[in-house]
Design brief:
alpha/beta, UDP-n-acetylglucosamine1-carboxyvinyl-transferase, Chain, Rossmann fold, 32 strands
Length: 661
Amino acid sequence: MDFLDLPQLVTAGGSVRLPGSKSISNRVLLLAALAEGETEVRQLLHSDDTARMLETLRTLGVRIATVAENTLRVSGVAGVFPVRRADLFLGNAGTALRPLTAVLALAGGDYRLAGVARMHERPIADLVDGLRQLGAEISYLEEQGFPPLAIAPPRAPATPRSLALDQAAAEVVTLRGDVSSQFLSGLLMALPLRAVATTVEVVGELISRPYVDLTLATMARFGVSVRRDGSQRFTVAADSAYHSPGVVEVEGDASSASYFLALGAIGGGPVRVAGVGRDSLQGDVRFADALAAMGATITFGADCIEASAPATGKLRGIELDCNHIPDSAMTLAIVALFAEGPSTLRNIASWRVKETDRIAAMATELRKLGATVDAGDDFIRVWPPLKGQGLRPAVIDTYDDHRMAMCFSLAALATPLRINNPQTVAKTFPDYFACFAKLTQPVPVVAIDGTSASGKGTVAARVAAALGWHYLDSGALYRLTALAARRAGVDWHDEAGVAAIAAALDASFAGGAMTLSGDDVGDAIRSEEISAGASLVAAIPAVRAALLFRQRAFRRHPGLVADGRDMGAVVFPDSLTKVFLTAAVEVRAERRHKQLIEKGIAANIAALLRDLRERDERDSQRSVAPMQQSADAELLDTTNLTIASAVGQVLDWVNKVSEQG
């Protein structure tokens, strides 16, 4: 699907079990393939990234069998891949392409590694330079310093020196640490394939250190212990080799936990995430500490973390070095929208070489919501909207980046949103939006559909007033589009022209007035000519698409009563209560005639009757969203009802559903 519309949310609470960690899943799969023996991998993440790793390993001749749901058995190749020549496609999976580059460069064979266009923009020169120091033969197939790559068997290594246990005797590789920790992780995972002890010296600051710690812990589970001197020097012994531990259970994804913990902190909570806890191997589990520093209530368990809103007051802004939580720090940028005061996230230069330039992307999309943002090479500073202004409804672009889609979903706790390309979450969390929906409560909607002049507008407005909710006259948007097109000289049958008018419609509803480009047009849009035009433009698919999100953006706290012709079926299918109003066509003609006469507009009841019959026929037969009663809507015939009795009946239905819910 091209987009997903999220309603404004009222609260969040409940529990969720996290999918397996992407970082752990791909590390375990690769080491299980390189190891001697069979490894059963449990709670494996099913995602685009792990799918790319599995496809590649199978292409290289690794036998992988499905044991049960989320469980695979990997038959290790003891460091020697059966397939020595292959073209490999890794999509946009950095956790697959980078370590595989290192492993295949030292494995002996001819391989080509490529990915999607964005992967070909993600630098890899530092890793390649380090591997070339070890004799690796790697060529850039397009732009220097970036994939795609061609790998040939490495040059014959120099005659090994007598190593004993003297670290100083090891061959030494220098590697920059300030671009991506994946370079160091990939190189370390590959070094047991060499017969020579090797030391990696990190030049400059090592960013994202917890991910390197995760790599070392995973290597240790497969029998390879790396000697280290802080974060600057790492040595892999000459006799190192991977051996299967038998069974490995993948932890839940700590980065994914950040979205749900933030839901609890912003939306009230409590929200409990299961699968990670106080003893997690993943650095991103420390995201919970950052929430606590902002005032959230956090509780750690051995295999779970729980988050709730502050016991008193609001969340507060934070200034934080995010080197230890590079991925989940993105979530903090959204939490900052709900805090008092600015928040500054530092040491996030690695954001710029991820699935997109995340610093630039975050700044752009945060500004759409009304935030003030300052950004630099390695920081982002976020000021929430001024008091009383609130977040604005916005269409969020995700840049084919799963974390952009997931973290911006949290803004729905303050405003309706449209998330473009939501399926990008499949990279790490295919079921994310389904889990998100189970934990959240949207702003309620009463949808009142019906035939023209059945009284739906009057009934809906009075129901909204009785409930103290917002009101949407959806038909007015189509009328305003028809009027705007007429004023612009655009024919109502010109699909592209009218759709462009709808997309740029400058309309507002305030104090009972309807304005178009600042002009009060409440009477102008009620003429029979514009009514006919509205029916025509409403049947244009492109116009309906342009106005869909605009209608949904009216769904604001504490609730919305929306009237129209497809409110319950199309615009708000999850409405709390759905009502379909109708009345005898003769009664509707009389009502319309009375309305026009009272406004001083000449009208002929016979013509009105004919027009209503034609409109009913046209609306019921249109190919896009034909006017009809939803299967789950209450039918209300207003032929013999007063407005007061119709309003009372609708309120009874609303109250009944509320009590049941």
